[in-house]
Amino acid sequence: MDLGIKGRTALVCAASKGLGKGCAMALASEGVNLVITARGKEALEATAEAIRKSSGVQVIAIAGDIATADGRAAALAACPNPDILINNAGGPPPGDFRSWSREDWLKALDANMLTPIELIKATLDGMIARKFGRIVNITSAAVKMPIPELGLSNGARTGLTGFVAGLSRQTVAHNVTINGLLPGPFDTDRLRANMVFNAKKLGKTPEELAQARAEANPAKRFGSIEEFGAACAFLCSTHAGFITGQNLLMDGGAYPGTL
């Protein structure tokens, strides 16, 4: 299927590896030019070069922390008028809510709620004027099924989801959609870090815990960044203009609910 977005421009946040990288690769394979961001310059440049070689699209790499005003300013200076915006940022650390300070909460909200809102605010009106825009927020399966040790993430990402639920109904008439992608267990550095955290509590090795968790999933495995990216690319396509305010759960069937 031709997704109809060849020649468009996307700003993809936290794209040096993991789910952001999967989205960047999938969009590039459809002919979308990219501005990608991440905190680690070396990994970001390596990803940018790999995408250039594999797809032939233009890729601009902007190293910086998208959760800061300076990081957002640098990304938007390189890509002031994206047709596609992929909001993504590393999640806050796991822990017990009793140990989290007000500063911990504000940091989580800045990264996983307020930063996406700031980027939407900076780019939305241009999309509306051009009559095309696709915004995808990478959040978490925890929006539907909270994870006890990830309370900072549960709170911040659910706040973003609630905000988007209202805004997305106002923009769709202009062919600008806003949707969420909710990853469950994908094979990423984030998942492996959580395995280390939980393995210590359970007296297991991270490898043992990862194997058990994969087997416990209905799909009997973890997801890949490639299949996550493919779903993102479709939501960004010309065929997805009637999909807005939705939250696509990608968890291998782990969520047990009907809706």
Topology (elements, then pairings):
Elements (H helix, E strand, L loop, with lengths): L8 E4 L5 H12 L3 E6 L2 H15 L3 E5 L5 H10 L5 E4 L14 H29 L2 E6 L12 H21 L4 E8 L5 H14 L3 H11 L8 H11 L11 E4 L9
Parallel strand pairs: 1-2, 1-4, 2-3, 4-5, 5-6, 6-7
Task: Provide the helix percentage.
Answer: 40-55%
Mean pLDDT: 95
Low-confidence stretches: none
What fraction of residues sit in β-strands? 5-15%
Give me the oligomer status: single chain
The biggest beta sheet is recorded as: 7 strands, parallel
Integer-rounded radius of gyration? 18 Å
Overall form: globular
Written as H for each helix and E for each strand, in order along the chain, the element string is: EHEHEHEHEHEHHHE
Secondary-structure-based class equals: alpha/beta
Report the span from N to C terminus: 28 Å
With strands numbered from the N-terminus, the spatial order across the biggest sheet is 3-2-1-4-5-6-7
Number of distinct beta strands: 7
The number of helical runs is 8
